[in-house]
Amino acid sequence: MNDIGPVRYKVAEAARLAGVSASTLRLWESQGLVVPGRSETGHRQYSADDVARLKRISWYRVERGLNPAAIREALESEEPSADGAEASQDTGLGRKLRSLRHASGKTLDQVAGDIGVTSSTLSTLERTSQGVSFKTLHDLAEYYGTTVSRLSGEKSGDVSELVRAGEWRAWPETTPGVAVQLLAEGRRMMDCHRFVLAPGAASEGAYRHEGEEFMHVLSGRLELVLDGDQFFDLGPGDSLYFESRRDHSWRNRHDGETVLLWINTPPTF
């Protein structure tokens, strides 16, 4: 028996089913109302759920006369909460960010403006837990008075004394090319992580926080910049210790993966 995958619609097909034009779909995408998938050749592909969402967007626009920001809020209010639903790690971060925003009484446009990103970027992050730079994720955590580690689902219970090689639990891959693996969890005085950076992966901006941090390069090559003018080219076996309140940014300068041990104390990242 052939394994038939889920139905995927092209732009013209999805537009016809939603009763709008293809250009309207592209506009809605730019406004962060819908994020279609992509084929291997880069063409937009809409799932059945996407088409249902398009129909709701059209209804809110025509029948209720809502603007894009109001439509995003209305769509969010329709989405089921994590209570009683099967929550996955991949979408948990986005749900946490949306809950924090709602608790603060802010709209997508307000938070996006305060952080300095587009509303569509923030909407995508809240719905998919993906699509932002490491710096933006840090800025959002600081904005809501929490840390990236807590947003990413690290446990605050008993410390895990032993973590076997290859059994690291990972953060949701919010930033393309950046994988963060947990070397210890629970109540502790240090954030202990193993970073795996794809070629070209970078923080895409500088950030800072309280505390001190230590990094040790296991393989590859990392460029770290402190205060915008101090450049460190770190190779295998190199280590660096610095105060976290200094602006720091980084990128993988290796043509392959760069792997490093990264420790923050206290756990303020």
TrEMBL record:
<feature type="domain" description="HTH merR-type">
    <location>
        <begin position="8"/>
        <end position="77"/>
    </location>
</feature>
<dbReference type="InterPro" id="IPR001387">
    <property type="entry name" value="Cro/C1-type_HTH"/>
</dbReference>
<dbReference type="InterPro" id="IPR000551">
    <property type="entry name" value="MerR-type_HTH_dom"/>
</dbReference>
<dbReference type="Pfam" id="PF13560">
    <property type="entry name" value="HTH_31"/>
</dbReference>
<dbReference type="Pfam" id="PF13411">
    <property type="entry name" value="MerR_1"/>
</dbReference>
<dbReference type="InterPro" id="IPR014710">
    <property type="entry name" value="RmlC-like_jellyroll"/>
</dbReference>
<dbReference type="InterPro" id="IPR050807">
    <property type="entry name" value="TransReg_Diox_bact_type"/>
</dbReference>
<keyword id="KW-0238">DNA-binding</keyword>
<dbReference type="Pfam" id="PF07883">
    <property type="entry name" value="Cupin_2"/>
</dbReference>
<dbReference type="GO" id="GO:0003700">
    <property type="term" value="F:DNA-binding transcription factor activity"/>
</dbReference>
<feature type="region of interest" description="Disordered">
    <location>
        <begin position="75"/>
        <end position="94"/>
    </location>
</feature>
<dbReference type="InterPro" id="IPR013096">
    <property type="entry name" value="Cupin_2"/>
</dbReference>
<dbReference type="InterPro" id="IPR011051">
    <property type="entry name" value="RmlC_Cupin_sf"/>
</dbReference>
<dbReference type="GO" id="GO:0005829">
    <property type="term" value="C:cytosol"/>
</dbReference>
<dbReference type="InterPro" id="IPR010982">
    <property type="entry name" value="Lambda_DNA-bd_dom_sf"/>
</dbReference>
<feature type="domain" description="HTH cro/C1-type">
    <location>
        <begin position="97"/>
        <end position="151"/>
    </location>
</feature>
<dbReference type="GO" id="GO:0003677">
    <property type="term" value="F:DNA binding"/>
</dbReference>
<protein>
    <submittedName>
        <fullName>MerR family transcriptional regulator</fullName>
    </submittedName>
</protein>
<dbReference type="InterPro" id="IPR009061">
    <property type="entry name" value="DNA-bd_dom_put_sf"/>
</dbReference>
